[in-house]
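Re: [ENG-882] Designed sequences occasionally contain unexpected residues at chain ends

Forwarding the minimal case from QA. Structure tokens:
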């Protein structure tokens, strides 16, 4: 498998190096071009690199053939179809895999019991988050709040929603443009530890910033 991937990647690099001499703007390549772009957007270069490399290689080979005057229409059609099929396979292979999201942990954010009121001990962590967001002025983030499993699902979801909004309000009040922020409560749906222990429940009660693209 590694050998086949290396061959496909080598072919892709060799053909892409000749791209200025290829007819890559041909409308005949529109479907393949879109399929490859959709697969890339789905993360195919990471989760299905072999299929994506094969799709790109077929695409460039078809472009090369078109530059030659499209003297082999059947072969060109086959290459384009291969590019489309491989790209679609790559996209489908990645469709069930969640996209990786950068998480900025806000460890040290605390609230009053059963409340969205921030405790004074949270200020240092929140001020550090403000500094980070000002330094990374090009990113947008979701303030995500989580609870442990104590209480009902509905109560925990509502509590986490209020807590996420409370943290977002703090960030806005300290100079972060509200247009860069959103807030969402996840309740007890995304635990990171066992809720049967005190330590586990403490880890599950957390707030984080999720970097959005």
């Amino acid at each position: 498998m590694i050998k086949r991937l290396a061959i496909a990647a080598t072919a892709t690099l060799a053909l892409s190096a000749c791209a200025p001499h290829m007819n890559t703007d041909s409308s005949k390549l529109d479907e393949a071009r879109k399929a490859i772009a959709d697969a890339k957007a789905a993360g195919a270069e990471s989760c299905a690199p072999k299929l994506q490399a094969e799709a790109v290689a077929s695409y460039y080979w078809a472009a090369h053939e078109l530059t030659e005057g499209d003297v082999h229409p059947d072969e060109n059609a086959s290459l384009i179809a291969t590019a489309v099929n491989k790209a679609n396979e790559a996209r489908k292979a990645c469709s069930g895999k969640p996209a990786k999201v950068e998480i900025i942990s806000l460890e040290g954010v605390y609230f009053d019991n059963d409340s969205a009121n921030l405790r004074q001990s949270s200020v240092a962590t929140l001020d550090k988050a403000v500094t980070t967001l000002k330094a990374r002025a090009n990113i947008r983030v979701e303030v995500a709040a989580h609870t442990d499993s104590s209480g009902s699902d509905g109560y925990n979801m509502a509590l986490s929603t209020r807590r996420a909004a409370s943290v977002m309000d703090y960030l806005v009040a300290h100079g972060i443009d509200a247009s860069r922020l959103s807030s969402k409560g996840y309740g007890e749906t995304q635990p990171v530890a066992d809720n049967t222990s005190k330590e586990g429940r403490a880890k599950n009660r957390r707030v984080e910033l999720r970097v959005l693209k």
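QA comment: On inspection the terminal residues look reasonable. The chain has two domains: 2-95, 103-212. Proposing we downgrade this to a documentation issue.
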